[in-house]
Amino acid sequence: MTGRTRAADLGDLPAVLDVVTAGRLLGFGRTKAYQLAKNGEFPCRVLRIGRSYLVPTREVWALLGYHDGTRRPDTEEG
C-alpha cells in the first residue's frame, strides 16, 4: 500500500496488516513501525507469526476513529 489511504480504501484491507502498512496508516515510517513492534510499544496489538509482525486491521481502524469502515463523529467538545 503506497501513498495516502482514503476511508473508502479501508474496506478493501485484509483482516491483518503487515506492521509496515499498519504503521504507514498511523503515520509511522518502516523503521519506526518495526522498532515500536519489537519493543512492544506499537499503539495496538501486534501478532508475531514466525518472523512476521501482523496487526489486526480493526484495531488500526479503531485508532483512526473508524467503526466497520466508517468514520465515527468526534465526540469531544472543546
- What order do the helices and strands follow? EHHEEHEE
Question: Tell me, what's the shape?
Answer: globular
Determine the number of helices (DSSP H or I, runs of at least 4 residues).
Answer: 3
Which structural class do the helices and strands define? alpha+beta
- Output the radius of gyration: 13 Å
Strand order of the largest sheet: 1-3-2
What does the main sheet amount to? 3 strands, antiparallel
Uncertain parts: none
What is the typical, i.e. mean, pLDDT? 83
Strand content: 15-25%
Give a short overview.
The chain is an alpha+beta fold. Helix content is 29%, strand content 19%.
Explain the overall architecture.
This protein has 78 residues and is an alpha+beta fold. Helices cover 29% and strands 19% of the residues. It has helices at 19-25, 30-38, 57-63, and strands at residues 16-18, 47-49, 52-56, 66-67, 70-71. The strands form two sheets. Strands 1-3-2 form a three-stranded antiparallel beta sheet. A hairpin with a 2-residue loop joins strand 4 (66-67) and strand 5. It is globular and about 30 Å long.
